[in-house]
Amino acid sequence: MPSKRVVCKKCGNCCNTVKGIPLSQKEASKLSRGKIVSSGKPQIRSIGGVCALLNRRLCAEYANRPSKCRQYPFAFINGKAILEINCSSMRELHVRGETMLTRAEIEKIPFLKKALLELEKENPLVRVQNKFVITDR
Ligand code: SF4
Ligand code: SF4
C-alpha cells in the first residue's frame, strides 16, 4: 500500500526523456523565447531527449513550467489518465504486470495528489476515474 513516504526523487527523468513539450500560446508567452520552437504549435525544444529548460536536474523556469509538466507523472491518453513508469517514484511502486493505484491511495501521496488536481483542471473526465494504472503505454 503506497504511503506518504512516496515522494518525488528529483531524479530529472521527466525532463531528460522528452520529445518537445507542447505549449499553449499563453504558456509559451511566459517562457524564454530561445527555448521554444514556434513553427506550427509551440513546443519547448529538446536536444537528445533533454528539455532545453533543464539545468542541473532542475527546471530553469519552474514557476512557469507548462501544464504537462505540472501534471507529471500523470498523462491523459485516449480519454483516460495513466501514471508514467518512466517516473522513478512510479517505478518503485510498480510490482509486476499492471500496478493499479486507487484515487484514495493517490490522495495520501502529496506530490501525486497535486499532479492529479492539475490534470483534472484540463480534463474533467478524470474526476470520475477512480483507478490509475502505472504503465509504459
Ligand atoms: S519545462 Fe521544466 S519541468 Fe518541464 S520538462 Fe522542461 S525542465 Fe522539466
Ligand atoms: S516526478 Fe518522477 S521522474 Fe520526475 S523528478 Fe520526480 S521522481 Fe523523477
Low-confidence blocks of residues: none
Shape: globular
- SSE string, helices as H and strands as E: HEHEEEEEEHEEHEHHE
Summed up, the domain count is 2
The level of helicity is 25-40%
Structural class computed from helices and strand pairing: alpha+beta
- Give the helix tally: 6
Tell me the span between the first and last alpha carbons: 23 Å
Structure description:
By secondary structure, the chain is an alpha+beta fold. The protein folds into two domains: 13-64, no CATH class; 72-135, no CATH class. 27% of the residues lie in helices and 23% in strands. The protein contains six helices and eleven strands. It has helices at 13-16, 25-29, 67-71, 88-93, 103-106, 110-122, and strands at residues 21-22, 36-37, 43-44, 46-47, 50-51, 54-55, 58-59, 74-77, 80-84, 99-102, 131-135. The chain has a four-stranded mixed sheet with strand order 8-9-11-10. A three-stranded antiparallel sheet has the order 1-3-2, with no helix packed on it. The two termini are 23 Å apart. The mean pLDDT is 91. Bound molecules: iron/sulfur cluster (2 copies). Residues 15, 18, 21, 44, 51, 53-54, 59, 65, 69 line the site of one iron/sulfur cluster (SF4).
